[in-house]
Amino acid sequence: MNRHTSPGGYGVIGPEHVAELSGLEIFARMHDGRLPAPPIAKLLDMTMSDYEHGRVAFVSTPHSELYNPLGTVHGGYTAALLDSCMGCAVHSTLKAGQAYMTVELKINYVRALTEATGEVRAEGKIISLGRQIATAEGRLTDSNGRLLAHGTTTCIILSARSAQGASQ
Question: What is the pTM of this model?
Fold first, then answer.
């Protein structure tokens, strides 16, 4: 079902990349295929469309396999797209050796999605970046720029080694 593909395939990047590369350098290598896109990108049919320090955007196209029993796209799809773009906006600001974890996520659903919605764009922007806490906002829009959902996140900034230990 994937309409989008990653030039570097899909996979998890090694801890050596996190230790040696800034968040922005990681995204540059993912974008040009020198590093793989995360597996969630394949599952959600999501491609990074553009990125810069403090801002990351993805595109995806919802399809009927994502429907809930009411015939609209499950809210988890929207939440995952927004969580991804907002978290990546935070990640794009991190130095080599730093990682992050989401500690809070808030989503507001504005319009229902169906496969007729067509391609959507999830764009995350940093709001505040501290030594230990970062916040970001995200917007999900259709191809006409119509707002579908929006949200905010709070992330904790950790050393890459601490983040890896926290996930085990």
Answer: 0.91
